[in-house]
Amino acid sequence: MKVVSVLPRHYSSAYLSILKKPTTIVHRRAVLPSSNNCNYSTVSPPPQKLSDNLKDLHSQLDKDELLADNTPDYVRLVLRSSVYDVINETPISNSVSLSSRLNTTVQLKREDLLPVFSFKLRGAYNMMSKLVSKMENQHNVTGVIACSAGNHAQGVAFSAKHLKIPATIVMPVSTPSIKYKNVFRLGAQVVLYGNDFDEAKKECARLSEERGLVNIPPFDHPYVIAGQGTIAMEILRQVRCVGNRIGAVFVPVGGGGLIAGIAAYLKRIAPKIKIIGVETYDSQTLYKSLKMGKQVQLTSVGSFADGTAVRLIGEETFRVCKDHVDEVVLVNTDEICAAIKDIFDDTRSIVEPSGALGVAGMKKYVTHLHPEIDHSKLIYIPIMSGANMNFDRLRFVSERAVLGEGREVFLLVAIPDVPGSFKKLQKIIDPRSVTEFSYRFNRHHNDENGAKAFIYTSFSCVDREKELKQVFAQLEKNGFEAVDISDNEMAKSHGRYLVGGASNIPNERVISFEFPERPGALTKFLNGLSSNWNLTLFHYRNHGDDVGKVLAGISVPPTDKEKFEDFLKDLSYKYHEETNNLVYQKLLKY
Ligand SMILES: Cc1ncc(COP(=O)(O)O)c(C=O)c1O
């Protein structure tokens, strides 16, 4: 298991002196795009009923930063943004192989090339520079504080260094050292506090109050949103809307700052361009909120795409999104991994999972969701939003990319346990290359037709649907039973490594857990086990993920059923009962 150094629960602080020299200053004047095909929308939005929170938030803006209805004038805020004090415009790269594969034109907006490797710098800097310029003199700013274990932290630290104001970043104790060291290097004070993000956030609020530090929010503030919106201004300048050819911009969504900024600007200047949000299935707060017509808080979020793992879309960002976002596409982990590979193939850059959401969503939009659109005539622009990739994750990403691309199929096949069956199976799969094949003799798999062998196999393919149909037809003809288990998470994480481990254990319960990747996690699990329960199976493989995936089998006497449920609850690790999972039933048990 990955070992993360244990840090004290109370915060340990680190100071680094702020560098004297400012970073490169490249100032560009913001201009409206000149193309005739961009039509400036002058229609005033209908008056909106705003919560007191939002009224308060909007009242922090200057009068000339507001529209007639007292909501932020995002076009004006974008045009006045100061982000070019610290960044150059990011380029747009042609994505040659994706364009030819999808028969469309794909142009990637390269936010991964910014100084802290993500767009977050734009919003953080814009807000902080406004803060400084609103003070008569910058010495009045006691400092800023932010809670983040990711890209926002680096954006705030970088901006603070440039503006020569002190910054404090609060991060959970479990934050990988690569992340807090980077923030520290950028000159911020790092406070490691709490076991999770919520505890760190509370400490951040407390410190902000106690020390009079201004809290820089990661997404839900007009200046942050406007900073992110400068991306839209650049896109229109860079791509030009010849013949209205920009079909859509694909935007990764977390708390919604990025998409709100882009949408607010584009829907005023070039309203025909579609704004498509992309979220993961396990972090779909915008998707659900749009469906319900109000902010929806998720009870938990997945951690693979950590940059976008947000439980609640912002209030201001949702206000903007509900008027301007055309659609939200949901993608899974395998599709994100495939997108990371696509981006690598075209640019030789590796983006982080959240940074690849735009490409993953665009692929789904073109290949599955909109057959009625002639994509060949349009330009699609996914935002490559960040590249702070944890190197350890690459193994997992490369393993899953082939599945996400639909270039590999996992099957569980039951064949008669008689000589010649393997050969027949191999012939059916041939000429496709077999990428995995696991079997162990097990005389206990018998039915009325005789003994059976269960095979776990995977093979490469080019046209998944078509080839799978052919293979299944052949398998059936030969009397083999097969199930496609490419979407079976337990099979992909564990089952494939456990083939042949079948046992006949009374009262066995099989549970998959997400152990936090921190010392003591295993001890806590083992200590919680009652002495009359038997640990019958334990499988773990490091996937370079934030959590350790563990499969455990435990034999629990029926009289201890309730005690066992209490154990699972007290452990407070995410878990899922796998006792009825097909892979367990067929491969691990008789
Ligand atoms: C790489 C990356 N992409 C996308 C997002 C989502 O941005 P937002 O929270 O503004 O929706 C984040 C947020 O931190 C991020 O780090």
TrEMBL record:
Cofactor (UniProt): pyridoxal 5'-phosphate
Q: Name one GO cellular component term.
A: mitochondrion
Query: Keyword set for this entry?
Result: Amino-acid biosynthesis, Branched-chain amino acid biosynthesis, Isoleucine biosynthesis, Lyase, Mitochondrion, Pyridoxal phosphate, Repeat
Q: Which domain of life is it from?
A: Eukaryota
Entry's EC annotation? 4.3.1.19
Instruction: Give all residue intervals belonging to the ACT-like domain.
Output: 509-580
> Could you state a single Gene Ontology molecular function term?
L-serine ammonia-lyase activity
* Protein localization: Mitochondrion
The reaction(s) this protein catalyses: L-threonine = 2-oxobutanoate + NH4(+)
Main localisation? mitochondrion
The entry describes its oligomerization and partners as: Homotetramer.
Q: Which PANTHER family match?
A: THREONINE DEHYDRATASE, MITOCHONDRIAL, THREONINE DEHYDRATASE, MITOCHONDRIAL-RELATED
Identification of the protein by name? Threonine dehydratase
Protein source organism:
Saccharomycodes ludwigii
